[in-house]
Amino acid sequence: MLPARLIRAFGGWLSDAIMEDIRQLSIKLLETLHLNVPERQALPNGGVPFSEMVAGVEEHLADRGWFPFRLQPGKDFGEGATIELRDGEIWVHEQHEIGVGRYSEIESRRATSIGEAVKSLIEAVGGSPIDGVRVDWSG
Question: 30 FRET partner, CA 20 to 30 A, in 15, 66, 93, 96?
Fold first, then answer.
């Protein structure tokens, strides 16, 4: 059997299979705002690498055009944000609760990069840490 390809990352050498696991966990955290204990233990000590979040969101946008969900025209989606890739431009759509069961209008704005859009998404759900999981902004 051939050895796994190694990647220098996060202060050491990691296999590309481990990097893929980290990317999948970062996407799960952004989609569900939660990771269970075994999933948290699989992360690097510094937390979820922001670069893996961006790479994972970029993959989802290329496949689906939206992350984490598609807007439904005329419907509130509640607290948070979603990212859209439309005609080569990145859009962030954000909505917040303004009263019990009442939500603001959906605000849409262009982002200059997927990284900027992911930062907006993280801020819209309360910032880092997400459910106690730190975001490693340097990673």
Answer: 15
